[in-house]
Amino acid sequence: MRVGYCFGITLPLLQWITPQEICKKDKMELCKIVESVVHSGVDVIQVRDQGAHSAAIHAAAMTVVNKAREWEQKRGNKIHVIYNMNSDQDLLGNESLLNVIKDRVPPKDLLDALGGVHFPERMIEYCEFVFEKSISPEKKLVGTSVHSVESALSALNCSISLDYLQVGTMFPTESHIGKIPEGVELIRDIKNHPALNSIPLIGVGGIQSTNAAQVLKAGASGIASIRSLLNPQEASTLRQLLNEFKTQHSASF
């Protein structure tokens, strides 16, 4: 875990990941969705739509940033907007991975405004391309997805220090139909590794109010969800659960 810079996030954190095809929403509809989600008390919004063209996700991310700032001015609580670099163009064979990454890099005004950048597992080794625009990574949340202890260890060798690892799939999920989840045991295994036990872990995949406690008890510093946070009642229950954990396990980064 990087030290020396405080992001002001009390753990465990609650993160919303935007659903697939979010970029097909018009600006007004996107703003309504974001407003509904921030009411639930999320700490982080991760803007992801791997099927969208880069220009579309750049525009969507800026809309989310502006809406988050509007909320902060009203309520005073900081919401960190993270941009997910994922794109399926290399997986479809349309482009090389490196070309996809270079095309996906946010323009400077967006990168300045963002709270951080998230890398899919296969892209983390190229993370330096995002920060070529003289933006200091030390002032941005930087993380990556991992699905094994080995990939978590490999992620630590990237050229930029990481602030968190997004771990999972925790439970069966509509986002990865048919996939056998790694489960909360992966959180526990990473947390128990001496080289990895200080970095915050964010559990993701099929997390609901009925199973979120399992993820936190395994050692996660937060949870990420797509659909659960689109349901106001479920989102409120998740926020309450995390608040209860905060009173028992106070930490921040």
Automatic annotation (TrEMBL):
GO BP annotations listed: thiamine biosynthetic process
Domain Thiamine phosphate synthase/TenI: 16-228
InterPro entries noted in UniProt: Aldolase_TIM, ThiamineP_synth_sf, ThiamineP_synth_TenI
Metabolic or biological pathway: Cofactor biosynthesis; thiamine diphosphate biosynthesis
Pfam family, one: TMP-TENI
GO CC entries: cytoplasm
Domain of life: Eukaryota
Keywords: Thiamine biosynthesis
Record-level Gene Ontology MF annotations: thiamine-phosphate diphosphorylase activity
Protein name: Thiamine phosphate synthase/TenI domain-containing protein
Organism, scientific name: Timspurckia oligopyrenoides
